[in-house]
Write a structure and sequence with these properties.
There is one protein chain. Strands 8-4-1-2-3-14 form a six-stranded mixed β-sheet, sandwiched between helices. The chain is built from 13 helices and 19 strands. It folds into two domains: about 5-300, Nucleotidyltransferase, domain 5, CATH 3.30.420.380; about 390-480, General secretion pathway protein M, EpsM (Gyrase A, domain 2, 2-Layer Sandwich). The chain is an alpha/beta fold. It has helices at about 45-55, 90-100, 130-145, 155-165, 215-230, 230-235, 245-250, 270-275, 290-300, 320-370, 375-385, 390-400, 435-450; strands spanning about 5-10, 10-20, 25-35, 65-70, 75-80, 105-115, 120-130, 150-155, 175-185, 190-195, 200-205, 235-245, 265-270, 275-280, 410-420, 425-435, 450-455, 460, 470-480.
Amino acid sequence: MSDIFIEWDRDRLVVARGRTVGNRVEITEARIIERPSDAADMLLVVDQLKQFSGGASGKNRPQVAVVFPRQFVTIHRIQLPQVTDAELPAMVRMQATMRLTVPLESVSMDFAPLPVIAGSMTRDVLLVTAPNDQVSQARRTLIEAGLEFKELRVSAFCVAQAAAQAGILRESTDASLVDIVVLMRRDFIEVTFLRGTAVLYSHSGSSWSSADTIERTLRSELTRARMSAAESLGEHKIRRILLIGAADATSAVSDQLASRFDSATIERIDPASSLVHGQLTDGITATDVVALAGAIQRDTKATIAAVDLINPRQPPEKKDYRRIAVLGGTLAALLLFAAVYFWRQGQINELSVRKDLLVASNNTIKQKLAAGESELNQAGRIQEWIDRDIEWLDEIARLQTVLPKTDRFFIDNFQLSTVQKNGTGIIKLQGYAKSNADVEEGGRLLTEAGYGVKAYSPKLEPASGAPEYAIKVALELTLPKLTEDQ
């Protein structure tokens, strides 16, 4: 478990220690450390972190969990084939190379699986990334302060964890109902959409300028957030709007707000009575430490599928049983040799007598083998069918090596399928390019690599998030025929 929890914002750091007590978090110590205007100058921050931690070093360095706010991260919802949890990390990384507009090496990333919908042919995950320069600055600052960087959480998941632990959020089997959690802070408003306890989308916006603008500001940010989340949410109905903040802020929002959002129920939650308690120093409110409370609970009572950007989900390690198999085989061989040797010494005189019996037994076995020839032929046909099975992860990896290594053409979506009659694999790609020449170059590379490329017609339809990619194309490929050495 981490010793210190830090919400790492652009203007300040909220630093706290605490522990879980029942369904709430007790904050035992908290402090706000202002960041200098020069983002690269962190000397004052380092000094204050040393004071807060007590100056331990070496093997006894305190472990730190950092929480990045929503504005520090990018969230993508990615649709994948219906694969096992063990295959998800590799599939997500492959999709990230196609979806991200920056090099994969320039970001830290993790993903949170969304609940699997019964009967669906696909499953969804939330891919969360943060720029490595932000992560590196936090790591350097903590190292200089004599602290160990153990976890990197994201505020939306931490707020959801705190609400779930307090019983405010509950599991839901209705995929059409959505709850909205709104963290109303004086420095920003953070809006998180959830289905049950699963985070679907998060949005961060500006806070209010005065008390009489609270409801107008909140209505504007909720509208903006819902529009941004439309693709991630799909068909939905807002069930509840949960306002987390000081009583004077949440009470300034009237129930009339619900009329614009599916007549949802509005619930006002005071974090000082429902989520956190303890001795907070001047200038720090319970609302300021809600995300940190969720991070503290995450260490002890995780109920939310969350992300950790420096300890991302990994495929399970494949255990190597080869050494055990070799040792076991050697031992078995020695035991067999000893048994045969002693048996031979004791039974050599009986072998001549039993010779005829063994010959008869051998003839019986031959007859049984001849009778089982048809079963062997059937087993061979079954093995041929099994050998046609397609390893989609390998095919996607091969496709990645064939596609042009350029920023002039990218794949936005793909589908994988198999023609049942002959086991032929089909990949359908949808992508964008800067020109028709880039599309033709991609088609040429695929054809030269042995892929069957169905006739296609590029369209002038710029990508919504990148208008410089003006050409949209849909490609249907058949996998190259495998040679005997593949």
